[in-house]
Amino acid sequence: MGKTDQKRPNNPAMAEADQEGEAVDNAFDLWLRRGLHQLYDTVAKEPIPEDLLRMIEEDRNSEQE
User: How far, in Å, CA of 42 to CA of 52, rounded?
Assistant: First the structure.
């Protein structure tokens, strides 16, 4: 029986600790997501340079030949 197959003990303190840990994880995820959006949204919204688009198209055409 693997670790994932084992059942957790029916201990209310353990369940409460799991919920608290999950809440901390959710709060961290929210903080990280907001921070990354704040840092990188403007960069992600920039248009792709024409030279890069041309290079991608040339590569795509060379693969088809």
Answer: 19
